Amino acid sequence: MSKNVEMGAAGSATVALLTIAVAFLLRSFYRRFTRMEKRKDDETQ
Q1: Number of domains comprising the chain
Q2: How far apart are CA 24 and CA 38, in angstroms?
Q3: Residue 40 to residues 3, 26, 28, 35, 36: CA-CA distances in angstroms?
């Protein structure tokens, strides 16, 4: 079923760009989440 497909430079660049974008989004959401948790902890004290 699976064929050996040559991806080429454009495909490699696309995969790299998507990987970087996902990593950036995950990092940004993690930073927002930790900031929110810290604020919640500060309010309870």
Answers
A1: 1
A2: 21
A3: 52, 21, 19, 9, 6
Question: Quick check: pTM over 0.85?
Answer: no
pLDDT tens digits along 1-45 = 566 667 788 889 999 999 999 999 999 999 999 999 988 888 776
Distance between CA atoms of residues 26 and 6, nearest Å = 30
C-alpha dist (Å) from residue 27 to 4, 12, 13, 43: 34, 23, 21, 25
Closest CA to 17 of 6, 9, 28: 9
* Domain region containing 11: 1-44
